[in-house]
Amino acid sequence: MMQPGRVEEVKKRRQDLGFQKRISKDFMLDLYDLIIQESCRIEDEIIEEN
Predict the structure, then answer these.
(1) Which of 11, 17, 41, 47 is deepest in the core (most CB within 10 A)?
(2) Is the separation of the CB atoms in 15 and 25 below 8 Å?
(3) Using one digit for the tens of pLDDT, what is the confidence trace for 9-37?
(4) Which residues contact 23 (CB under 8 A, 6 or more apart)?
């Protein structure tokens, strides 16, 4: 189950880490959007199987 508050917290922390490492904010947000989407897809598959 996606937890919107948790998702935003994770994205903000990764955005801050990216800034510290001189990685583009947009890149970090796009990357974590993809990671979260894929995690949700896998989770849905697991739920459907059970």
Answers:
(1) 11
(2) yes
(3) 999 999 999 999 999 999 999 999 999 99
(4) none
